[in-house]
């Protein structure tokens, strides 16, 4: 028996959805959408509804990506973003960002009224601080300046949380849902409207020029008038230097059963370490979902303790049982904290992108899908300029973040080449690490059957040295966030090619 639980998302349990076929032959269509997450499915569904012939390609299966690994808080309250946007840009930009996300939330409500069965619940959304925070004060002032539907909620939160709180603010009438159910509702309706959806079909290349061609890992081709890249991290990131414009952060979530009374609403602390929590009811069970413990992706090997700390918080604060489910998620944070949604490259007018939602992909993803659908059908959309991926006026804060992000990437390149490897004999059952085998440095994982799985340590994206992630049993790239399983298969991009792999069975018993 393994000593540590394997990760599994609550949202992916009891998934009885009908699988969609692989793409087995080359096709032509009006628009090809790459990525069946929330932004990809909303844009594909809307485009198909508007008379376009759409082909949607998903590298894995619906719900396997970031949308299926969130807390699924559908809120326009995005941490302390509004005070940050006022400070970096101006009040008008901050208000536009709010209205953009409010549009996504309103669209979701309309779908629920139209019959989408997604465990939708209206909840208030709270930010709080245990120690007191100048950031929270600035955010409360931003709410007043922007006339957002909320404000101070300190006494309200003090009355319901089981620990001391010094400050709190609220935005009223937000929502939470079941994200994988939402994806399947969109997928089913997209296909019913005539769209083509293909799972286990990884796009690896997009040709430039009129009528671009998307090529898959099996050599199939899809030619279209336009291409939408909605793969969370855009796999075609070399052109346009997108790889230099993101900070990639990984964070963790546990779902713990509780029989105690729990506070209503969705909560996020602005203190460090941050804690995010909300409840989810399934039948007669109530789960407390607790998230946090974020760090730069690929920078931490010992990640199991992250889950343990969230587990302990749920137990100590809400009397919750030991976590029934634990999973993690990866987020892309842009230089100026606004997503990139629109035309991807200045000289390629037929390739579009939606990415960089930070930790707020529910409303940003929905609104981003709507924005792209408008762009590709010629409808006006007042948020085009706000989120234009080619916006070029860098603020001083953007320059600083650009230098920090890319200096860290350079450090990771050098660090990976200098680290000294261990040996296969060092690995216990269910352990991984970088070791020396036959004079070569490789990544190795010894499974529960005492077989060793060896992979190249060179990320196939840009050559950075991957690091072991012990909670996820994965190899994670610290430069741009690509992730691979123990046999080298791609779990998350931007990488599209697997790591070189071999299996060794003639290893000493541990």
UniProtKB/TrEMBL annotation:
Organism of derivation: Exiguobacterium chiriqhucha RW-2
| PANTHER family registered for this protein in UniProt | RIESKE 2FE-2S IRON-SULFUR PROTEIN YHFW-RELATED, SARCOSINE DEHYDROGENASE-RELATED
Any keyword Zinc-finger? Answer: no
List residues of the Rieske domain. 419-500
Q: What is this protein called?
A: Rieske domain-containing protein
Upper lineage: Bacteria, Bacillati, Bacillota, Bacilli, Bacillales
The UniProt entry's GO CC annotations, sorted and at most eight, read: cytoplasm; membrane
> Which InterPro entries does this chain map to?
FAD-dep_OxRdtase, FAD/NAD-bd_sf, Rieske_2Fe-2S, Rieske_2Fe-2S_sf, Rieske_Fe-S_prot_C, YhfW_C
Query: What CDD domains does UniProt report for this protein, alphabetically?
Result: Rieske_YhfW_C (cd03477)
For this protein, the record's SUPFAM superfamilies field holds: FAD/NAD(P)-binding domain, ISP domain
């Amino acid at each position: 028996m393994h000593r540590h639980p394997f990760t599994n998302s609550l949202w992916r349990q009891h998934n009885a959805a009908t699988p969609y076929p692989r793409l087995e032959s080359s096709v032509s269509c009006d628009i090809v959408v790459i990525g069946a997450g929330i932004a990809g499915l909303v844009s594909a569904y809307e485009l198909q509804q508007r008379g376009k012939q759409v082909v949607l390609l998903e590298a894995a299966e619906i719900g396997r990506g970031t949308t299926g690994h969130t807390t699924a808080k559908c809120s326009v309250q995005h941490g302390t973003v509004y005070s940050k946007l006022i400070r970096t840009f101006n009040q008008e930009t901050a208000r536009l960002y709010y209205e953009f996300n409010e549009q996504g939330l309103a669209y979701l409500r309309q779908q629920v009224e139209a019959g989408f069965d997604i465990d939708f619940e209206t909840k208030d959304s709270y930010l709080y601080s245990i120690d007191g925070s100048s950031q929270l004060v600035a955010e409360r002032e931003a709410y007043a300046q922007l006339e957002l539907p909320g404000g101070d909620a300190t006494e309200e939160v003090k009355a319901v949380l089981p620990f001391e709180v010094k400050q709190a603010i609220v935005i009223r009438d937000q929502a939470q849902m079941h994200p994988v159910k939402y994806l399947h509702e969109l997928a089913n309706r997209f296909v019913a409207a005539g769209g083509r959806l293909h799972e286990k079909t990884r796009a690896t290349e997009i040709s430039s020029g009129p009528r671009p061609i998307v090529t898959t890992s099996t050599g199939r081709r899809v030619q279209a008038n336009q291409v939408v890249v909605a793969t969370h991290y855009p796999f075609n990131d070399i052109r346009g230097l997108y790889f230099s414009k993101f900070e990639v952060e990984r964070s963790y979530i546990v779902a713990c059963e509780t029989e105690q009374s729990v506070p209503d609403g969705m909560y996020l602390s602005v203190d460090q370490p941050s804690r995010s929590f909300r409840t989810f009811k399934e039948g007669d069970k109530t789960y407390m979902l607790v998230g946090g413990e974020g760090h730069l992706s690929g920078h931490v090997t010992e990640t199991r303790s992250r889950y343990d700390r969230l587990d302990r918080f749920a137990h100590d604060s809400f009397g919750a049982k030991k976590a029934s489910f634990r999973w993690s998620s990866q987020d892309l944070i842009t230089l100026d904290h606004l997503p990139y949604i629109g035309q991807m490259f200045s000289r390629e007018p037929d390739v579009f992108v939606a990415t960089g939602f930070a930790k707020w992909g529910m409303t940003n993803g929905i609104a981003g899908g709507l924005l792209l659908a408008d762009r590709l059908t010629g409808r006006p959309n007042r948020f085009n300029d706000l989120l234009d991926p080619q916006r070029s006026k860098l603020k001083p804060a953007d320059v600083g973040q650009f230098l920090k992000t890319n200096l860290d990437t350079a450090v990771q390149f050098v660090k990976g080449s200098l680290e000294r490897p261990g040996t296969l004999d060092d690995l216990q059952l269910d352990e991984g690490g970088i070791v020396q085998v036959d004079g070569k440095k490789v990544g190795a994982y010894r499974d529960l059957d005492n077989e060793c799985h060896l992979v190249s340590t060179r990320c196939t994206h840009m050559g950075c040295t991957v690091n072991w992630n012990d909670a996820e049993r994965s190899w994670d790239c610290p430069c741009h966030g690509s992730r691979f399983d123990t046999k080298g298969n791609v779990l998350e991009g931007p990488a599209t090619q697997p790591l070189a792999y071999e299996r060794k069975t003639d290893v000493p018993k541990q």
